[in-house]
Amino acid sequence: MSNLCIVGLQWGDEGKGKIVDYYADKFQAVVRYNGGSNAGHTIVINGRTFVFHLLPSGSLKRKKLFIGPGVALDPITLEEEIAMLEKEGGHADLTIDERCTLVTPLEKQMDSFIEGLRGSNAIGTTKRGIGPSYAMRALRLIPRAGDLAKGEFDLTSAIGFYKSFLKEIPEMDGWKERSLKVLAGRTGDVGGEVMRLNEAGHSVMFEGAQGTLLDLVFGTYPFVTGAHTTASYVPAGLGIPNSALGDVMGVAKAYTTRVGGGPFPTEILDDTGEMIRKEGKEYGATTGRPRRIGWLDLVGLKYAVRLNGASEIALTKMDILAKVKETKVCLAYSIDGEETSDFSKAMPRLSEAKPVYQVMRPIYGQELREDNLPRAAEQLVEFLEDELRVNVSLVSTGEERSATMQRHV
Length: 409
Ligand code: IMP
Ligand code: MG
Prior knowledge:
Blueprint: E1 4-8, H1 16-23, E2 29-32, E3 41-45, E4 48-52, E5 64-67, E6 72-73, H2 75-87, E7 94-97, E8 101-102, H3 105-118, H4 130-138, H5 145-149, H6 156-163, H7 173-183, E9 187-188, H8 190-199, E10 204-211, H9 233-238, E11 247-253, E12 256-258, H10 271-279, E13 292-294, E14 296-297, H11 298-308, E15 312-316, H12 318-321, E16 327-335, E17 338-340, H13 343-346, E18 354-360, H14 375-388, E19 391-396, E20 404-406
Parallel strand pairs: 1-10, 1-11, 2-5, 2-10, 5-7, 6-8, 7-9, 11-15, 14-16, 15-19
Antiparallel strand pairs: 3-4, 12-13, 16-17, 16-18, 19-20
Bound molecules: inosinic acid and magnesium ion (MG).
Residues 11-13, 38-40, 123-126, 128, 130-131, 209-210, 214, 223, 225-226, 259-260 line the site of inosinic acid (IMP).
């Protein structure tokens, strides 16, 4: 069996945590390869909700866990998460790559500082210091996880830089001591370990964070995250060959959400949006902010499927659509009277794009069961398969791990 990459096809919060947890049984290990603690991956088991920001979503199934070199690592968040898991009787069998870029309290301050400079054009970042940490990496000013673990942690130049714009530099010794404890005995070579598992005949799962449309290069810049979010970053971010990427499964919600600023052509600004937000519990798992709600957007999805080379899709939150009287999907945008279904072309003028909708048979009021989708839901799924030319191999019918319907087995 080959490796599997789970990647978000929208603006994040597609339900990747649930899908990773669901499939984890089949894999030896789960690997985070991008982003940092800006992610919030939710798993619900028997009414209990677990949110992970850094630990891969295979922890509740006691899988081997890896945090790869492409991740921006906040050791304090990780410490809290490991403590939460241990309190639940779990154990994090975790290896962190030595090359991981660290996130210190300084990068979080820079995140807030820069958002302040942007004023009304603020991105609405999670303020977790993710963009600044990657930027400090590019400037070669920030030590890596391995540098800290080896006692070669030198912040002198970084602090000199920070002094040029921060009024106060926080005391870093306490942070350093706590962080060292988290990293102790946990650092290693993640790419090498993944390759060794594969050579021994085991498969691993790569867990993407954020979504394709938040990609630093291919997303809706500047309203994007500070890292790469597409499946092609798996080999680059882990230091493994392209052939080790394996299959790519995209995760999409049956509607669309977005947190923070930026263009959102299918945004629903009336009561229906409010209702979906409430029913779908669409509040940020990391920041608690209300998420913006919109109809399913096939223009964006097509772009994301192509960019990631996704051969199948997991469609989540179908049960929420069953609470809405109407069901619409966007097939194209109209910009200045001209229609396009090419997201890449539309991107420079996305804020002016008017959605062209196809009205679908409503799923409203129908009961969704794991063993049987109502006809209208099945029709929506088949419509997506035709339009996107991919199999929808899983439909999520509720937040619980068990509320999952497998198609095309
Ligand atoms: P940053 O990643 O904190 O720099 O935030 C940049 C943009 O990405 C903001 O609009 C955030 O709301 C969004 N974002 C970052 N991480 C996530 C995520 O995991 N889910 C959804 N949106 C995210
Ligand atoms: Mg999330």
